[in-house]
Amino acid sequence: MRFPLNLLAATAAVVTFATASFAGDQYVDPTGFAVSGYDVVAYFDLEQSPVGTSQPAAVPGDKDITAEYNGAVFAFSSEANRDRFVANPAAYAPQYDGHCAYGVAQGGKVPANPNLWRIVDGKLYLNITKNVVGFWEEDISGNLSKSENNWVSIESAAASDRAIPQFSSSAPVN
User: What's the pTM value of the predicted model, to 2 decimals?
Assistant: First the structure.
């Protein structure tokens, strides 16, 4: 059966807009940037520390090197990183719209600290406090399973409006 081209285009548009309307908001703190202005592409170039140890510090972005995605402005440390992001933003943006991965596992949206991160299976996850990182890392795969199940029902809820506890962003630079 052949479908008229305009019917296929209309169906694609409806699916696109319907999907966008169900997406949740990216967490943006008082800096006005996603991930507090840190460069999300740079995480993938840092050497990841073993579970149970602190990760290297996140790389601050530059307020003049930005791109928009998921209703938020992301800052980057270089134009090359911005270009990598623009080519495939879903590959670099943090999971759960930048909210704490353990918070999502527990059924809610809370902010995440950009210096408390881990890449698992090529995806960036953030957490809120060092104590929470410990809970999350006790069972990463189990917590990710819970997060994925919970995210379906909370994704469309508004982004957290809470501040990240005991965190002061040094990003974006310049």
Answer: 0.84
